[in-house]
Predict the structure.
Amino acid sequence: MAGMLEGKTALITGGARGIGREAALLFAAEGARVVASDLNAEGAAETVAMINAAGGQALSIECDVTDGAAVNAMIQAVVDAYGRLDCAFNNAGIAGFQVGAVGKKTADWPEDGVDKMIDVNLKSVWLCMRAELKQFEKQGTGGAIVNTASIAGLHGLPTSSLYVAAKHGVVGLTKTAAIEYATDNIRVNSVCPGYIETDMTKDTMARRGDQILARVPAKRMGVPKEIAEMVCWLASDRASFVTGANYNVDGGFVAS
Ligand code: NAD
């Protein structure tokens, strides 16, 4: 049986590790030609080596998604290599501990940390979408975008205010672009992961994992593959009537 993404070219940002790597592996296993992009060139190259070793087709691109010119060049590089772009997973992101905001309430976030959080977790998604949408329009045959939001895109979370603000922004961008491009056969959706076992959550889980898991109905963290499965489906033609939606993959967190 043909894979869900057979014949598609897919770009994944944040593809060096965690959720992005797992999505890259699954997209390739489902038949896509994959471009794994990341600030971390070595990690992205490792992801590509894993895909190629499994018989898939992939290449890596080093790109800082906060740099608009670099993002445009990344899309051009995808098209130069594979002739087109069909699906994009805008997934690169950072957490509060990466901008000096651990345990800080709203008024205590450092201003440079606020700027960085908005740049990496919100503006970069717009920069990627801008380039992807223009490429889809040029091709004229539609396309699918999946953005990584979070349960923090739907809920307030104490001491995570700018992360929460950025992820709410991602949900808003997703809904608006979905409406604007629906008749062009371009679908835009987001995925809202709960607490997932990646490098991003190690620090938080070490500090207050028990407290967090007590609030998750499934009483466990998710694994990156569980997010990748949803993203792969959303990126595929099987989700052909799904646009402007947010899918929680969170062990029941948002429902509780
Ligand atoms: P991770 O830290 O393992 O991976 C993030 C990747 O993004 C890294 O490879 C990093 O190098 C890359 N990146 C960071 N800044 C970048 C930049 N400016 N340009 C290009 N690449 C950059 O984290 P993860 O858990 O895999 O997170 C992936 C996405 O999922 C993020 O958007 C995160 O906010 C979101 N998310 C994660 C969880 C979770 O529990 N892990 C929950 C909800 C949402």
